Amino acid sequence: MKEKLDEGDIISKAKISIKPGISLHEHNYLCTLCGGELLVQVLNKIARGEKIPVERQKEGLYYSWPGPEDVNVFLKKGFSLIHLQDLKLYFE
């Protein structure tokens, strides 16, 4: 186990596409939902006594929280930071 977040081995992963028309906020929301689902899957495997395959973390494959330059690139590609309709995500 590592002391810092996201420095250890990979025990589960998924791909999430950036969909045209969604905001950065909605994209982060979808990533959060996916992460929660992955966590539940791994915990269920552990509860069943299944072996969890481990993948070594590779250099340069980690995408952190977007910084100012990342947000500028995102906006230049025609995406938005947040839409008013994003608030509905929390009431569904």
From TrEMBL:
> Organism source for this protein?
Candidatus Gottesmanbacteria bacterium GW2011_GWA2_42_18
InterPro entries membership: Formyl_transf_N_sf
Query: What name goes with this protein?
Result: Uncharacterized protein
Note the superkingdom of the native organism. Answer: Bacteria
